[in-house]
Amino acid sequence: MSSTESSILVTGGAGFIGSNLALTLQERMPNARLTVIDDFRSGDFKNLAGYTGDFVAQNLATFDWQRQFGDEKFDAIFHLASITDTTLHDQFVQTHDNVESFRRLLNFAKPNKTRVVYASSASTYGAASEASVETNGAAPANIYAFSKAMMDNLADRAAKDVSGWIIIGLRYFNVYGPREGHKGGAASMILHLSRQMKAGQRPRIFKHGDQKRDFVYVKDIVAGSISALKATESGIYNLGSGHARSFNELVDVLNRSLGTDFKPDYIENPHAHYQNFTQADLTSVRGALGYHPQYSLESGVADYMKWLYPDPSN
């Protein structure tokens, strides 16, 4: 895709991953026409500092794409907008907003077969004890995961119904990194633990710290998402680090990055449905998108901590 001719739209572009994606696209494709759509329910204008493209403030669940854009054509749409708070248990609101927003987007993209790259989620796999493969059936344990599984169903059906239309779903695993602070309680545990430790407190993790997650740095997520612009066929793929690391290991990594020496403060897990293990099998995405994450947990956390807590002497 030529950056001199590209017109790219990012929904949810004021959010955590969306803003990182929009700003990276702007940097890598300086001549492209960029448009961001966001309603600021889970985004923040401060995330788009330095952004020079167009911005549309709309709720996608009720958005009239045709009225807004008319005959304007996009080369690709990155769909990252959704209700991302997994603690929101209103089943109607969560499903309606996430699924109907996606349905409206697909209906707009269909006539021109506009390439669509959308955010699915590792939560669709539910409880797991080994690396998740894309062919595993959906087993959502909460309404957020259910809404994402329904989006996968829509995408799969649309791609099969329209020959030559490329729709790529990306199942993001446990993403952390710059521009997530606005998410509050829904931000990564890496951010929350680092703040506790910077405040001189022991990091609070669930007993006994042996839960394992596929922590993936947002820069790898952005790179993997952009690689979907070159995909030659539709598909749904995992995006993670490919490694499961324990909460205890994470505390050790944070201690090294922050120059601290805190022992974990173990607490009870209040969540009835909790993914105690996540890990992405990257076999398919390596072949289809050429995705190879560049950041280990150690290097990703180190880079993030430098961004979060810049050295005032520099």
Give me a quick take on this structure.
With 314 residues, the chain is of the alpha/beta class. Helices cover 34% and strands 16% of the residues. The longest helix has 19 residues, at 91-109.
Oligomer type: single chain
Q: What is the tally of beta strands?
A: 13
Q: Which percent band covers the strand fraction?
A: 15-25%
* Order of H and E elements: EHEEHEHEHEEHEEEHEEHEHH
Low-confidence stretches: none
CATH topology descriptor of the largest domain: Rossmann fold
Average predicted confidence as pLDDT: 94
User: How widely separated are the two ends?
Assistant: 38 Å
Descriptive overview:
- This protein is α/β, with parallel strands linked by helices and 314 residues long.
- It has 2 domains: 208 residues, NAD(P)-binding Rossmann-like Domain (Rossmann fold, 3-Layer(aba) Sandwich); 78 residues, Alpha-Beta Complex (UDP-galactose 4-epimerase, domain 1).
- It starts with 6 loop residues before the first strand and ends in a 6-residue tail after the last helix.
- The longest helix is centred in the first third of the chain and has 19 residues.
- The strands form 4 sheets. A 7-stranded parallel beta sheet has the order 3-2-1-4-5-6-11, with helices on both faces. A two-stranded parallel sheet has the order 7-10. A two-stranded parallel sheet has the order 8-13.
- The model has no long low-confidence stretch (mean pLDDT 94).
- β5, α4 and β6 form a beta-alpha-beta unit.
- It contains 9 helices and 13 strands.
